[in-house]
Amino acid sequence: MLSSHERAGLVTIAPSPKASRLPDCAKSPPHRKVLGYRVYVESDIELARQHLELARTMSSRLWAEYLVFAKTLDPARGVAGPEELRRLGEASEWTGKIYAAEHALFAAENGTPGIVGAHAEYQWLTMLDCYISDLLRLCPDVVLNKCLAVTSVDSGTLKLTDQQKRDGWWTSEGAKVFRVAHPGGHREDRDDWKVAYSPRVDSIHETHSEYCSGFDEWYVFERAAPVEEIEVFVNWSGFRLYDPEWKWCADRFWEQMLRLAPESYIADGTVFTFATRNAELFKKVISAFSAGAVELKKSQTP
Known about the structure:
- This protein is of the alpha+beta class.
- The strands form 3 sheets. Strands 3-4-12-11-9-5-8 form a 7-stranded antiparallel sheet.
- Mean pLDDT is 84; it is low at 1-10, 14-42 and 294-302.
- Helix content is 34%, strand content 19%.
- It folds into 2 domains: 18-110, no CATH class; 120-293, no CATH class.
- It is globular and about 55 Å long.
């Protein structure tokens, strides 16, 4: 059963009081991959809080050190050197541990396969290391007998092949994909950034999900999708629906969702995000991923 967080709107994972003992900085949160996502510490909430506090501290410190180091570099250097790449990699790794620890803490407190929340009529789930193809294998009902509007594939737009066009996929000059550079920033678009529309989906193989390997974004409609411009969100590095620092972006996202009114939204960016206004479908998805976690535990039992 889902917790009351389902109806909590934007979920805030607040910093914990300073822990008396932190785990070894060289160690990352324990994890294993299953069905495209990770299962983290579920029983020790305090340990999960310590991991989150440590990750936030280390990420903040390393990015601050990188910015100081970057000021010593030649702006015209063109290519990053080994030391710059090392510092960027280390800071990015600890930022990734923040996302892992956020999900670990929520899972430990609520027993869900990821972070869950709600906005208006939509319920949403975020997880790590999950792709659209994983969701379709576990719960094909998300797309079967429905129509897709694809706004991103591997950070770009889907360029339709002749075969896809013969299969009924299409684009329109009136349905461009665009993005906003930053809060209050200018709009960015190109003539070849177009929404790719599918015919009604009879099989998950018709979705071409084999092309999905990260930074993909789909809107799922019960009937033909509306032909209009759509802002893309999946390519924002760091965007999570539950993070208060990204509220400006989440507000734009939800405004668009309520306007387009898709049944579901699927994206695999910084985190995997699934949102739907179909309550029964949401329960199926939660159950499918939760069952994967249970099967992992059974396989680990001596």
